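Here is one chain, start to finish.
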Amino acid sequence: MNLSAIQSALRDQHLDGWLFYDHHRRDLLAYRILGLPESFVSRRWYYFIPADGEPRKLVHRIESGKLDSLPGTKHEYSSWQELEQNLKEMLEGATNIAMQYSPRNAIMYISMVDAGTVELVRSFGKNVISSADLVSLFEAVLTEDQIATHYQAQERLDRVLRAGFQQISDRVRNPGHTNEFEIVSFLRHAMEREGLWTDHGPNCSAGSNAADSHYEPTQNRHSPIMHGEFILIDIFAKLSEPHDTSRGRPDAVWYDITWTGVVGREPTDHERNIFTIVREARDAAITAVEQAYAANTPIPGWQADDAARNVIRRAGYEEFFTHRTGHNISGELHGNGAHLDNLETHDERILLPNTCFSVEPGIYFPGEFGVRSEVNMITRPGKAVVTGPRQSELLRI
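Its structure:
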């Protein structure tokens, strides 16, 4: 835990403190941000970091050592009455307090604190403020070394994807067919050879399966790939541990992309038109972020989503774009920073400097085909960049 950085962030956001609370390890964000070791937790604990001064702890007497690795004064309780009195005293002098809470559960990734605990804190005359932007600051902002791992994964995974499309082409020519699971297996082996790791996937979707944005072929459920097929590949990975390819490096940052194409033929006019709309939506979101960063203007995730969604809306296909435009990327594939989302959530979190996220609008026609074009972006002070190649037209495989 970087106490001085947390307290500086609290002052910057005009907050009096940040109250962490957990029971049965429900709030994993707290453990990550505070650097707490994994352990069995059967009683409630509270850790309050004021904007200035020494942190304060409140723990149950039978688990009194749970926060000993953290700085600050410690108080103990046994009864619920003692808990409430100690908590009230612990928060004295503070009014605006951040917690892992989101009004109306608008950003559910942050809503780790139960309603009853929020009610209790409010009963002391406190204003409970969402910690969403604080969490982004300490969970999503990347170091220079982490950013380097993203670019290493990008270079390697782009090679794997090119090889995967070539493999489809070769197999469809001779013996004349392949299937989704064979291509997934090829991609996984190629990723391992490149020193990359993933916990699931990748995904190769043929024909109408491409219209299911979360389709994953398995050994027992997959479709053939033959001449004329429409193909979508969604592939994602991070660097593996140097001496243990069965594990991903905890600090490494993922690279996550989606490309589409057709096998052995030219795209139809309809396919080409849908891809063009998706590409323009993708580029509209990219431009919105680029322009905001060039102007040093904060941009929340929902605005980037709107930039993409409005393109698809104007083209008349809004009902076929059924997911957010993008997600945060860090040491986790779906990280804890701002998402590009004004559909599933109204994500007001700011796209902070030195964060990574996907841009991946899509249009999906159930029973027919689906197009998604996914790139990753990294924001830097004064600029925002796409980290890999952008697909400009449907591939001819």
